[in-house]
Amino acid sequence: MIFSESTLESFRNILHCPSLQIFAHTDWGSNNPSHRELLRAEIQKHTSGTTLYHSVSHTHDLGMFALCEFPIGVDLEITLRVQDKVVARISTDEELRIAPNPSALWCAKEACFKALKTFEQPSVVSRISVGDWKKIDSQTETFALLNSTDFKSSSEGRGIVRQISQWSFCFFVIPS
């Protein structure tokens, strides 16, 4: 388990998603040629007969998915691989100025993009505006989707970015 039960409970409270479940495994990383099939099978096992939403993300050595009763987006990045110049291409100067770091901003936009597939997902991530960052602890920040009405979202949603070791994890939920 990548997150302790107390951390997961904290995420559930912050995101207003009591059903939030997070699963991660090294076999689901893209280094494994079978990672997509393994992820699909695991998601099917946990969602069969339910109405839960899910979202998937992976790096070379780790894959994960999250389940929630509301639309959810997940992003997982190797923190040092996120390049400032790439984040600058999809972000405004204001977003860059107020975000905790480029990796957090990248992950936030990616997770929002994925959650918006239930609404009117934009054609490009740069149309997504995130902000209202709040520091929870040395590893954790929360944020909101600032332009949710552009996508006919039911709310601005709430997201959380957690940086652990070499990874940045992000979860974004749009409660109805």
Question: What this model shows, in words?
Answer:
The protein is α+β, with helices and mostly antiparallel strands and 176 residues long. It has one domain: 4'-phosphopantetheinyl transferase domain (Ribosomal Protein L22, Chain A). 28% of the residues lie in helices and 30% in strands. The protein contains five helices and eight strands; from the N terminus they run H-E-H-E-E-E-H-H-H-E-E-E-E. The chain has helices at 5-15, 35-47, 84-89, 93-98, 102-115; strands spanning 21-25, 53-58, 63-68, 72-78, 130-137, 140-145, 158-164, 167-173. Strands 4-8-7-6-5 form a five-stranded antiparallel sheet, sandwiched between helices. The longest helix is centred in the middle third of the chain and has 14 residues, at 102-115. It is globular.
Summarize the helices and strands and which ones pair or pack.
Elements: H1 5-15, E1 21-25, H2 35-47, E2 53-58, E3 63-68, E4 72-78, H3 84-89, H4 93-98, H5 102-115, E5 130-137, E6 140-145, E7 158-164, E8 167-173
Antiparallel strand pairs: 1-3, 2-3, 4-8, 5-6, 6-7, 7-8
CATH topology, what is it called?
Ribosomal Protein L22, Chain A
Please work out how many helical segments DSSP would assign.
5
> Which range does the strand content fall in?
25-35%
Spatial arrangement of strands, main beta sheet: 4-8-7-6-5
Query: What would you call the shape?
Result: globular
Evaluate the radius of gyration. Answer: 15 Å
